[in-house]
Write a structure and sequence with these properties.
With 281 residues, the chain is of the alpha/beta class. It has helices spanning 8-12, 43-57, 59-64, 83-94, 103-106, 113-125, 138-141, 151-165, 185-188, 202-212, 223-227, 235-251, 259-279, and strands spanning 27-30, 72-76, 98-101, 131-134, 172-177, 193-196.
């Protein structure tokens, strides 16, 4: 059945900490509604995720033997490959609310305020049991050996390490980054497991298309003809094609997605990706 969130969480929602500079909430509290069947992962990655969930559910048994479940995870890999979705899936499977740390609010231009905001985040999180998700983690976790980084960000890394070491809770902490090479070496050692989210293989792309189109008729689609055109594309790229093909079908007044609509959506996405690549050169 998983671990259920206590009613105390609901009262805490009204007391979310704020940034002093802009008065913005530092956190979002989300009630996850995604589960294992809602995500497509490689076989090895799915085993890692299921192990995390299983250990957490059996945490009381582990603790009787002086052992702890994995409760500090680092998600790495290219953008758009399911890191955020996976945090929602884990929270959903465990029946825990997702505490999403908003780095756009946490990072402040005021000296010392970013570290103060991080303290507020951990203080709030200590009053409940959550899946705490730090997205774009490299924004505060850059290597202190990098001479290009100024002293303030180095102090932020030190503060985060101290807060993490002193955080004793049943909550599960997940940090995600698309730029793992930027992270401070000391941060890597603080995580119980590292999960790498890679670009989907062709077999995963087919499963992902079938998952995203499950609410639409698409039996006539020749998926094998399209998959080779999506080699090297991310999960989010594939999902966008599926949604666009569904829109074309609906707006055309048709009752199913056919090859023509899917090819049209695929071509549009390829043009979009080409434009993005040009702007990043």
């Amino acid at each position: 059945n998983g671990v259920r969130a206590s009613s105390a969480h609901l009262a805490d929602f009204k007391r979310l900490p704020r940034d002093r500079e802009r008065n913005s909430h530092l956190l979002d509290v989300r009630t996850p509604d995604r589960f294992i069947p809602d995500i497509i992962l490689s076989e090895g990655l799915q085993e890692q995720v299921e192990t995390v969930i299983y250990e957490y559910r059996k945490s009381e048994i582990l603790q009787t033997h002086g052992l702890l479940p994995r409760h500090r995870l680092l998600f790495t890999g290219p953008p758009g490959c399911g890191k955020t979705l996976c945090s929602e899936v884990i929270a959903g499977e465990l029946g825990l609310p997702l505490l999403y740390v908003r780095f756009d609010a946490v990072i402040s231009s005021y000296l010392g305020e970013t570290a103060a905001n991080l303290r507020k985040v951990f203080e709030f999180a200590s009053n409940g049991t959550w899946v705490i998700f730090f997205d774009e983690f490299d924004a505060i976790g850059k290597s202190r050996d990098n001479d290009a980084e100024h002293g303030e960000l180095k102090r932020v890394v030190n503060t985060f390490l101290q807060l993490l070491d002193n955080f004793h809770s049943d909550s599960l902490i997940i940090a995600a980054t698309n730029h793992e090479r930027l992270l401070d070496r000391a941060l890597w050692r603080r995580f119980d497991d590292i999960l790498y989210f890679d670009l989907p293989a062709q077999s995963q792309i087919i499963k992902l298309i079938q998952l995203k189109l499950r609410g639409f008729r698409h039996q006539a689609l020749n998926l094998n003809d399209f998959v080779s055109q999506m080699d090297g594309w991310s999960h989010s790229d594939v999902e966008r094609i599926c949604l666009d093909a569904a829109k074309i079908s609906v707006l055309s007044g048709q009752d199913q997605i056919v090859d023509e609509y899917f090819q049209q959506a695929l071509k549009h996405q390829a043009q979009r990706m080409e434009l993005i690549q040009k702007t990043q050169k």
